[in-house]
Specification:
Distance between the termini: 62 Å
Structural class: mainly alpha
Shape: elongated
Largest sheet: none
Region (Disordered): 1-46
Radius of gyration: 21 Å
Number of strands: 0
Helix content: 40-55%
């Protein structure tokens, strides 16, 4: 093979645990909740 041939990249995945994923999801949800809780009263009507 020639040196100029494109090689497929190998994705290096970090080993995330289920707890890491849950923590990330919870942090994202808190950020979205803060963004949504605006308005005159500080909370939007459901």
């Amino acid at each position: 093979m020639a040196e100029t041939t494109a090689r497929p990249r190998v994705r290096r995945l970090s080993r995330t645990t289920e707890a890491d994923r849950r923590n990330a999801a919870a942090a994202l949800q808190r950020a979205l909740d803060r963004r949504d809780n605006g308005g005159a009263t500080g909370h939007q009507a459901a």
